[in-house]
Hints:
The chain has helices at residues 6-20, 34-60, 65-89, 96-122. It is mainly alpha-helical and 142 residues long.
Amino acid sequence: xxxxxxxxxxxxxxxxxxxxxxxxxxxxxxxxxxxEEIRSLxxxxxxxxxxxxxxxxxxxxxxxxxxxxxxxxxxEVGTDxxxxxxxxxxxxxxxxxxVRRRWAEIEALVHEAGELTGxxxxxxxxxxxxxxxxxxxSRVRP
Length: 142
């Protein structure tokens, strides 16, 4: 994907959120499902960051590569974590060591997503509070 503006970044992040969203609750998960919790976190983080990128673009234009980097990294982290979640839940032959390694990678990505979300929300003027209020996209799911 060729990302040349903050609007492109917003499109990317909103696309990541939209692609993860349908996977939430399929198959129905237990009330304390870690994959469901992670997907919900990723959807909300990517959706919120996408909306913030859109607001930033409206106020400041295309931005620099440095401005776009944390947003793009969050999109990449969200995509990777969702891919790994599919790998640990859809195995035909369980390899416990591989599943353990994947979960370690997933948890590291979740940690990074949290750090990036904090940076986007509070860093360098990029993450001013959204004028749109609470945009918790995953909350519309029954």
